[in-house]
Known about the structure:
Layout: H1 2-17, H2 32-45, H3 50-59, H4 63-71, H5 74-77, H6 80-91, H7 94-106, H8 115-129, H9 135-148, H10 152-160, H11 167-181, H12 192-241, H13 271-279
Helix pairs in contact: 1-3, 4-6, 7-8, 8-9
Domain CCHC-type: 244-260
Protein name: CCHC-type domain-containing protein
Organism: Trichinella papuae
Amino acid sequence: MADATSDKSQMDNVQATVLGLSLPSSFDDGDFKRWLLHFEVCAEANGLSDTIKAKKLTTFLKGDALIIFLDCPAAVKSNYKLLVDTLKSKLNPKASQVAAFDEFQRATLMTGESMRSFSHRLQLLLDRACVTEDKTIKTTLLLRRFISGLPKNYSRQLMTGAEITSLDEAVDRAQLLASVDGQLDPQSTPTTHEMSALMEKMKRKIDDLAERFDQTAIHNQAHGAAVRRQEEPRRNGQQLLLPRCWSCGRVSHLARNCRSGRRLNWTDPGAADHRRGLQN
Length: 280
């Protein structure tokens, strides 16, 4: 029995001296549960036991996480499960849980984010929120938020289609929709910043075109007025050259076609000169 215990201790010491190739980054602040998932993957890849994981974990802690570890009793420090549970509870207080649930309710698919990454992000937020341990309620909350967080055309098709009973099924259907129309291609979907810049550029162009249009309208009005001023004397001169009625003295018709009852007195002194003036 003693030999077996000694052999296990020696194996742990050997594992502790081996520097694994798969290592997570240090944890200082943020989502501890998400960071812990990466640590677990690295620990499994390196074949570490729980005893060695407890020792290794402490070397990656910084800031508040390290302070919490230093305050733990020795029995907790040496027990990986107890250590992880303590860090989770201390690094995820009630205020953080409320903030996580608020973020969960507002979460939407980000540009360039895959459907599966989005669903995983929702699961982590809901875990941090600690709303409930009931799997059915969790599944319902995740499904509603996942579908609501998708673009409207995807949400509409998922809600009006066949009944979805699991998050994985919703992810698969959303991926199928995305693969059909390619709307989630990061290279073809502009970011919010790019959209803002594009809208600002379009606004400047519209303002510039409106100003040019106003200037053109003013120029056309001025040009039209000048043309009318030039045409007026010409029209007046043309009226003087038109044929004049000898009967009523008006232009545009001859005396034989005159319908006016007015008759000029051509027998008065100077009438002959007046007739010659009209003829000229």
